[in-house]
TrEMBL record:
Keywords: Membrane, Transmembrane, Transmembrane helix. Signal peptide: none annotated. Residues 38-112 form the Mce/MlaD domain. This is Phospholipid/cholesterol/gamma-HCH transport system substrate-binding protein. It comes from Sphingomonas xinjiangensis. The keyword Plastid does not apply. The chain crosses the membrane at residues 6-29. Pfam families: MlaD (PF02470). It comes from the Bacteria.
């Protein structure tokens, strides 16, 4: 019984010591990494050479490590990388992440672009699930130098292949003949220009002389315009002054004529109201008198002077014989 009791006691003590050791290890892990801050980075590119434990550098300074790499279920084209960095690293607004590849070693996560005076990257208080779906802030990404080159290498090779095919088509047998003809025509044109060199030089000289003459003519036109302005200023001004005086005199004459008509207006009104009706009556009386005189003249012609004194003699009546 005593041996069995000793074994149980020893086992219990060992279990207690193992539990205390495990708690101590967990405490040390929390003590060493409890102050580190974690961020998620969503890369839309291959993360070749990157693995858990890879270094995280801020502007080239070692600042943390990669904790986890996994696919992002809502969007399979994205790769989620969880990183932890030291608390003194300035992860501010404007900071971006990229993958720095290497031909000789593992890739690293490069952080840079922090702006002085900017606020730290953190999850917003309102609607944090939308900005931080896994509960930690997200650092935006940018294409790294070597990573971008490697990612664009297939497209670059495809374009180079297309360019090579088009160059092959351009330099085919038929196109080579065309290019040879173009070069031959160019040579003939060059020789013709060389033969016409003296004529071209003479033409350029004549053109230069014509331009000089045009400049002289424009200068003379300017002088003529200045002279014309002077003549107009000296000769036309006195004429305009005399014309102004004539216009003023005509204005005064019109004013005098208006005043004269105003003075004669009462007499004209009396003439039109009294004299004109009397003249009309006189003309009517003269018409009556002329009618009477015409009647007297007619009587004198028909009956003589006696017709003016008495009535005309009636003819004798004679009865008709049966």
């Amino acid at each position: 019984m005593e041996t069995r009791s000793n074994h149980v006691l020893v086992g219990s003590v060992v279990l207690i010591l193992l539990a205390m050791l495990a708690l101590f290890i967990v405490w040390l892990a929390r003590l060493s990494g409890g102050d580190e801050r974690q961020y998620d980075i969503f890369f839309k590119q291959a993360v070749d050479g990157l693995s858990a434990g890879s270094a995280v550098n801020f502007s080239g300074v070692p600042s943390g490590q990669v904790k986890e790499i996994s696919f992002w279920a809502p969007d399979p084209s994205l790769v989620r990388v969880r990183v932890s960095v030291k608390p003194e690293v300035p992860i501010l607004e404007g900071t971006t992440a990229s993958i720095q590849g290497s031909f000789t070693g593992p890739s690293t996560v490069q952080l840079d672009g922090a702006t002085k005076g900017a606020s730290p990257i953190r999850c917003p208080e309102q609607n944090p699930k939308a900005a931080c779906p896994l509960g930690v802030p997200i650092i935006p990404t940018k294409q790294g130098g070597l990573g971008a080159l490697l990612n664009s290498a297939p497209r670059l090779l495809e374009r180079i292949s297309t360019l090579t095919e088009r160059l092959s088509e351009l330099l085919g047998d038929r196109n080579q003949n065309s290019i040879a003809g173009i070069l031959a025509n160019t040579n003939r044109l060059t020789r013709a220009l060389a033969d016409r060199g003296p004529e071209i030089a003479a033409t350029l000289a004549e053109t230069r002389i014509a331009i000089q003459k045009a400049g002289i003519a424009s200068q003379q036109i300017g002088e003529l315009a200045a002279t014309t302005n002077g003549v107009l200023a000296e000769d036309v001004k006195p004429t305009i002054a005399n014309l102004n005086k004539t216009i003023q005199a005509a204005g005064r004459s019109v004013e005098t004529l208006d005043s004269t008509i105003g003075d004669a207006r009462p007499g004209l009104q009396a003439f039109s109201k009294k004299t004109i009706p009397e003249i009309g009556q006189l003309i009517q009386d003269l018409r009556v008198m002329s009618t009477s005189l015409a009647s007297v003249a007619e009587k004198l012609d028909q009956g003589g002077a006696s017709s003016l004194i008495g009535s005309p003699k009636l003819p004798d009546y004679e009865p008709k014989k049966k």
